[in-house]
Amino acid sequence: MTNTIGCIEKADLILVTGSNTTENHPVISAFIKRAVSFKGTKLIVVDPRRVKIASFAHQWLRPNLGTDVAWINGMMNVIIREERYAREYIESRTVGFEELKKAVADYTPERVAEITGIPAKQLVDAARMYAEAKAGSIVYCMGITQHTTGTDNVKSLANLAMLCGNVGIAGGGVNPLRGQNNVQGACDMGGLPDVFSGYQKVADPQLRERMAAAWGVTGLPDKPGLQVTAMIPKAHSGEVKALYIIGENPLVSDPDLNHAQQSFEHLEFLVVQDIFLTETARIADVVLPAACFAEKDGTFSNTERRVQRVRKAVDAPGQARQDWQIICDLATRMGYPMAYESSEAIMAEIATVTPSYAGISYPRIEHQGLHWPCPNPEHPGTPILHIGQFSSGKGVFNAIAFIPPAEAVDAEYPLYLTTGRVLYHYHTGTMTMKSEGLMDRAPESFVEIARQDAIAHGLDEGAMATIASRRGSIQARVQISAKAVPGTVFIPFHYAQAAANTLTNAALDPISGIPEFKVCAVRLSKAA
Q1: CA distance 31 to 304
Q2: Which residues contact 282 (CB under 8 A, 6 or more apart)?
Q3: Cα angle: 153, vertex 494, 302; to 5 degrees
Q4: What integer pLDDT is reported at residue 180 of this predicted model?
Q5: Measured between alpha carbons, how far is 247 from 245 in angstroms, rounded to an integer?
Q6: What are phi and psi of 50, to 5 degrees?
């Protein structure tokens, strides 16, 4: 997030898109609902489903799946044509405006209506609402990113925010809600194939030299590694022969699961390090039992870039150990001696090699976390990014054209499927499905469908349906819901017994490598 969670309540307008905030981020949704209900904040929700947060919205825009660039360009078309943009901000703080202006000129409200299904007047009204706000906060989640055009979608939202001067101010910003509790911290620490910690590129020779000196090694590679979504196909072809998986359950969470399962069968060696015996761990050659969050010391970096302490509350059961201890022992056995006295010693090393974390230490975050970048021990942290100027100089507008989803409906597969989460479960259910109370509230998978489509397919509430795509089929219970809109069905991806990702498309965003979980074509029928 460029801003903080608390900043949401300082916004004059909040634009929520691609986020079922109430179910996926219930704490943050409370900030949004409080701002709307008690502080007069306007709310625009853009989502293919009528999710709960839409009931608080002044405008709910329902786009066709995978048409985000089109409606964002359409809003910018209106704002530029009516000269509602932040002229002084654009001239002093950005580059590329003229190219953006040309790119969005064709995205008239009428044309956007044809692409997205959003009525032209509704788009115009929403664009004016956003432009008129003194501080507009954009909040988005995986409904924006999990597309073959996910990177384009995010850049387009950044365009919209800069167009109205909403980056670098309290109550504004472009604010992604991260999908898991420490995914921000994992990325910060180099959990990406082309960077060291702090997003320092491995291709930079000076950075490689500095890291090599810090670690007492030579010859650090200058080429990026594989993205996770590239590893599985290469396992299928035999190019990748072994995988070491930590805290992930791809045999439920990966797209096109039938192909993913075949790929895992081609591996020569699989190691899984986790807190429970997941579907993936069950097929591993070696399972390394790990400690959970309550059984170790360390830090979590949350969605607003706040680095916070995590403290051990109980001992880990059996042979479970902290992740860093397991990795250190493995490294030592493989020829690189690695040992730390504690997690605090690791944090001290992080500060020496990561400029954005250089001022963060355990004593400084003993009682309250700090937002990175925090470049030195006297720095107070940076709750809001890009105040006064962008960290890289000037903000760059990107001229982006709409590209349709990788898969379209047809006579054989006439419905669109989108996937997501429910309030009571988390990711692949590794932890939540071991809770009797949560399983009592959400015991099994379901297919959420509009009444109109249920009638057309002869499906009754509570009946079992077969859902098939070009990659496979599953069975799930029918749930006729006002959230659903005709032509689109929804299935949560948590349940291994009816894994939605058996159906999803493995087509990838060419830049981020994220699969198109949010759009694929399916057909429905009564279960035999």
Answers
A1: 14
A2: none
A3: 55
A4: 82
A5: 7
A6: -85, 75
Residue 481 near residue 121 (C-beta atoms within 8 A)? no
Separation CA 260–CA 237 (nearest Å): 12
- pLDDT tens digits, 186-218: 999 999 999 999 999 999 999 999 999 999 999
Band the pLDDT of 391: cuts 50, 70, 90: confident
pLDDT of residue 116: 98
First to last CA, the chain: 47
Residue 214 is predicted with a pLDDT of: 94
Check whether residue 165 and residue 185 sit in a common domain: no
Same domain, 37 and 157: yes
**Cis, bond preceding 373 (omega within 30 deg of 0):** yes
Which residue type occupies 516?
E
Q: How many CB atoms lie within 10 A of CB 436?
A: 7
- What sections of 67-119 are H helices per DSSP? 68-81, 87-93, 97-104, 109-116
Domain count, the chain: 3
Exposure string for 116-142, b = 16+ CB within 10 A, e = fewer: bbbebeebbbbbebbbebebbbbbbbb
Helices (H) and strands (E) in the chain, counts: 18, 23
Cα 510 versus chain centre, distance = 16
Does 470 map to a domain?
yes
| Same domain for 57 and 163 | yes
SS3 411: coil
For residue 357, the SS3 value is helix
Mean pLDDT of the chain: 96
Question: What's the CA gap between 45 and 28, in Å, rounded?
Answer: 15
* Bridge partners (DSSP) listed for residue 14: 43, 137
3-class secondary structure, 95: strand
- DSSP-assigned letter for residue 18: S
Phi, then psi, of 296 in degrees rounded to 5:
-155, 160
For the question of whether the overall pTM of this predicted structure is more than 0.85, the answer is yes
Phi, psi of 299 (to 5 degrees): -135, 150
Question: Which residue among 376, 395, 423 closes a domain?
Answer: 376
Which domain-ending residue is among 121, 148, 177? 177
Domain that holds residue 61: 6-177
Beta partners for residue 508, in sequence order? 515
169 and 203 inside one domain: no
CA distance 90 to 96: 9
Long-range interactions of 441-446: CB distance < 8 A, separation 24+: 444/476, 444/477, 444/495, 444/497, 444/498, 445/474, 445/476, 445/477, 445/491, 445/492, 445/494, 445/495, 445/497, 445/498, 445/500, 446/476, 446/477, 446/478, 446/479, 446/491, 446/492
pLDDT tens digit sequence for 340-366? 999 999 999 999 999 999 999 999 999
CATH assignment of the domain containing 432: 2.40.40.20
Token duo for residue 258: 């039938």
